User: Which sequence fits this backbone?
């Protein structure tokens, strides 16, 4: 099989939160650190250190360095540089805001707390700063002070959610269950937050020992709605399991699994339930309840793309509850999405070994280490997880992907084979294991086995365009099953009309069938979609030659040579430039 064939592989309340975030942006207090506080993007804001710069060039340099580091998503360095600039210009409100948000986002909460108090002295309605000092009061068990602090939050924007939720848990801390429930009534008018409000009503009643009221609140969410969210399903299932309704817990977990069949976390919860384990309550006190609220809000912010603010809220949740595995998982996800892989790896490593989240956290550690170029460490972790969880195929599947990405196809084949051995019944969701193993087999010259795996993948996912493309293109290269390949590739192009590789494959089967005009049409389109691919340009050159456009053919072949084709393609293309195609040469 040619090298070119390998390239076929290339081939809960959102609306309401958006409204609240939009409203919140009217206030500097609620702006994420991607904004400078005056509505301008952080990096293009008017330099705030000008006065200081006139007196201290180093401070201005620190400010500029902070802007640059923030733009590069090196928030740790950005926090340090902004802090230096702030030392030189301590009364500058914008520097104070930016430095506070960076420190909080980095988890430097002691420093952030000191900055929050300075911010609130000049701007009492600064939302994140007031939430942080409230968190500190909750940590200290000073619930009355926490309530007092929350009263000074504005009534609009994100604060409209934060205030009632944290206030409710402050009342729990004071032993006032009914007052806590009353605080949550402020959420009733907010469209789209019914499930979240009911969840906290249930948690507060559950903690107070009113099981019936908790059950009513959880029931108000409903199994179907709860099954749409891992956290809601986990909270509700935990309640049912602790109260002896194992069937209800099982039904909920299974409903979630039906939606998310690859959820290792929920599968572990289901296994523990079936093993007769009675779980501990997920919320044991007011601090943990407040942490839950901040975690919930962080998750929503992250869904809305406000990752910097999500980072700050999740850091505050972990400030209240350092042993909060799902909080670490969310933090790792945010950091990974910001391409801060080293920091994400360290966060995932903090998930304890007895947590249901430990397994998935370890897989993510491996992903992060591999992306950081520490492949051997990633392999060690995946092998360790494969040994610790002999019933699970994912570590070996990821191991195969790791080897395949580095074109170590023999190793990839072995890993995928081990993964497949662990899947008792292949389901639709397993098609990628077969597909990727097929690629590994094809690249190690085991075509018969590769073809069998591609066909099996198509039995699980009929008309999967990437599998159809790889299989059909392989047939075309081998000049077999051309009519079937043509049919398959026409369908693949219908499904993925903007995929240059798939369009090229269709053009190439036309070429092999002698349909040169159709081949030119499709291959010109493929070059439009993938102009820098040497194989596609080479194919177009061949098609041009066959229709008599020989000057254009030579141009395409010359262009293919400039695009760094595989070494084995070079002599062939050079020969075509020298001698053209022979009459019987059909690729």
Assistant:
């Amino acid at each position: 099989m040619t090298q070119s064939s390998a390239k076929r592989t290339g081939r809960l309340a959102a609306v309401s939160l958006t409204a609240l975030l939009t409203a919140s942006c009217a206030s500097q207090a609620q702006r994420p650190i991607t904004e400078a506080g005056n509505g301008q993007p952080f990096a293009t804001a008017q330099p705030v250190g000008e006065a200081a710069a006139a007196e201290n060039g180093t401070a201005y340099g620190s400010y500029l360095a902070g802007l640059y580091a923030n733009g590069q998503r090196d928030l740790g360095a950005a926090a340090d540089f902004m802090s230096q600039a702030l030392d030189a210009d301590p009364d500058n409100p914008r520097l104070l805001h930016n430095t506070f948000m960076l420190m909080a986002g980095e988890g430097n909460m002691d420093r952030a707390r000191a900055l929050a108090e300075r911010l609130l002295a000049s701007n009492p309605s600064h939302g994140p700063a007031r939430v942080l000092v409230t968190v500190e009061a909750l940590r200290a068990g000073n619930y009355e002070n926490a309530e007092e602090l929350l009263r000074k939050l504005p009534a609009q924007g994100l604060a409209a959610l934060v205030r009632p939720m944290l206030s409710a848990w402050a009342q729990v801390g004071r032993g006032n269950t009914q007052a806590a429930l009353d605080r949550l009534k402020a959420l009733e008018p907010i469209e789209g937050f019914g499930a979240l409000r009911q969840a906290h009503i249930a948690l507060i009643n559950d903690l107070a020992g009113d099981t019936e009221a908790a059950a009513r609140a959880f029931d108000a969410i409903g199994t179907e709605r709860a099954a749409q969210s891992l956290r809601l399903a986990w909270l509700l299932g935990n309640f049912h399991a602790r109260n002896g309704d194992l069937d209800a817990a099982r039904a909920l977990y299974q409903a979630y699994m039906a939606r998310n069949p690859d959820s290792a976390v929920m599968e572990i919860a289901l296994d523990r339930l079936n093993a007769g384990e009675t779980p501990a309550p997920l919320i044991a006190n007011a601090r943990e309840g407040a942490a839950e609220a901040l975690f919930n809000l962080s998750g929503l912010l992250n869904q809305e793309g406000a990752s910097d603010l999500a980072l700050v809220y999740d850091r505050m949740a972990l400030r209240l509850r350092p042993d909060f595995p799902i909080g670490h998982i969310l933090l790792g996800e945010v950091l990974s999405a910001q391409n801060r892989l080293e920091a994400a790896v360290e966060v995932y490593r903090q998930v304890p070994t007895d947590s249901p989240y430990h397994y998935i956290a370890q897989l993510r550690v491996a992903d992060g280490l591999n992306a950081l170029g520490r492949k051997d460490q990633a392999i060690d972790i995946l092998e360790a997880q494969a040994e610790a969880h002999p019933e699970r195929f994912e570590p070996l599947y990821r191991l195969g992907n790791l080897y395949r990405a580095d074109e170590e196809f023999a190793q990839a084949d072995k890993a995928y084979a081990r993964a497949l051995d662990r899947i008792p019944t292949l389901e639709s969701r397993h098609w990628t294991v077969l597909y990727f193993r097929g690629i590994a087999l094809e690249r190690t010259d085991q075509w018969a086995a590769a073809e069998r795996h591609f066909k099996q993948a198509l039995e699980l996912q009929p008309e999967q365009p990437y599998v159809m493309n790889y299989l059909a293109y392989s047939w075309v290269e081998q000049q077999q099953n051309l009519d079937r390949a043509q049919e398959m590739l026409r369908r693949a192009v219908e499904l993925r009309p903007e995929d240059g590789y798939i369009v090229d494959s269709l053009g190439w089967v036309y070429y092999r069938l002698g349909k040169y005009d159709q081949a030119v049409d499709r291959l010109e389109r493929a070059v439009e979609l993938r102009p820098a691919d040497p194989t596609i340009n080479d194919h177009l050159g061949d098609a041009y030659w066959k229709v008599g456009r020989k000057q254009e053919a030579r141009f395409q072949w010359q262009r293919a040579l400039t695009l760094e084709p595989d070494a084995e393609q070079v002599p062939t293309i050079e020969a075509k430039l020298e001698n053209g195609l022979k009459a019987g040469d059909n690729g």
